[in-house]
Amino acid sequence: MTTAPSQAATITIDPWDPGYATSVTADAVAELDASSVKLDLGVELPAERWRPITPPPREAPPGGLIVADGVRRIEARVWAGDPSGGMPVPGIAASCAAGLVRCVPGGPAALADWEVSRSLFTPSPAAADLVTRAGTYTAVRAPGGTAEQLSLALQRRLSDLEVTLATRYRSAAAQDDLLIVDGPLRGRAHLPRTVGYVKTHHAAYLKDAQAAVLAGLKPGQRTPVFLMTTSWERHSWYLRLPTPSTAPWAGIARCEATADLSRKEAADLADQCAAVIPGLAGVGYKDPRAPQNLVPIGGLEKLLRHRLGDAGILYRALRTAARGA
Range of 266's domain? Predict the structure, then answer.
């Protein structure tokens, strides 16, 4: 619980629909232009010997598979007044929810844990928690007031929530499960046996012969593991999920794992993902993002959006609370 400043900022709700002027997606922020990325293609195979890799038959992870994901929603754009008389600064009132789904061999997927967080993001140092009849929006200091800075602050809160849930679950459960987190691994690479699952591509990192290997993947096959460095370093590989389309990028997902793994550990983890993830692929008549949007992710997102609550009720509660602040 944060401590309210001696003189709190006044909060005014912007009348515009909060769906307008939203920032870029979290994946777009994390995936930089390919020209700024350094690749070491020889981690598993020399670059000149790259080929599609079919993982050997294997059983599912002994502890099962855990899928982590989260959703976020901006409920209102706000203005935080300056108690000293300066210009108000922008902010957002937003909610996010994170959850874990456990998939065990031969059994149904089950919700393992979930949590909702509501926050008031603004660069104002005078902002205090905003208490509404629908819940409390905890004041969080954002690095700035641009749409991108506020959205990144919200995304960091969501990532922190996912890490908290995964750490809490694993402290009470077996450590031999495999954790798949939706999106880049950044900020979560310290979690053991964890893979970032990137289903939206904003840059084509592989070129020439390696790009041809990627385009030639069949469902269930993967590229060799390579090392990828931007502002941080991680192992990565591409795999193709089952899809009726023959387009070069159809069914392609990219996986990320910590750079701390040995060559053998990274290759073994990539094989395990290529053996397990295709079986979770979404289907087109249920999900327009199929097959990359995995069935457990799609189901978890639907449940978490419901747990966020009614956006209209929350917006009205925010306006009422702001008038009384």
Answer: 11-324
Backbone CA torsion sign across 187, 90, 319, 15:
negative
Report the sign of the C-alpha dihedral through residues 195, 207, 25, 244, in that order: negative
Q: Which helix (H) or strand (E) holds 162?
A: helix 147-171
Flag whether 222 is in a domain.
yes
Helix (H, G, I), strand (E, B) or coil at 313: helix
Contacts of 173 (CB under 8 A, 6+ apart): 63
* Cα dihedral across residues 131, 139, 150, 87: positive or negative: positive
* pLDDT at residue number 294: 86
Q: What is the count of structural domains for the chain?
A: 1
DSSP letter at 299? H
Residue 1 lies in a domain: no
The residue ranking higher by pLDDT, 113 or 13, is 113
The predicted model gives 63-77 an average pLDDT of 91
Q: What is the 3-state secondary structure (H, E, C) of 109-122?
A: CEEEEEEEEEEEEE
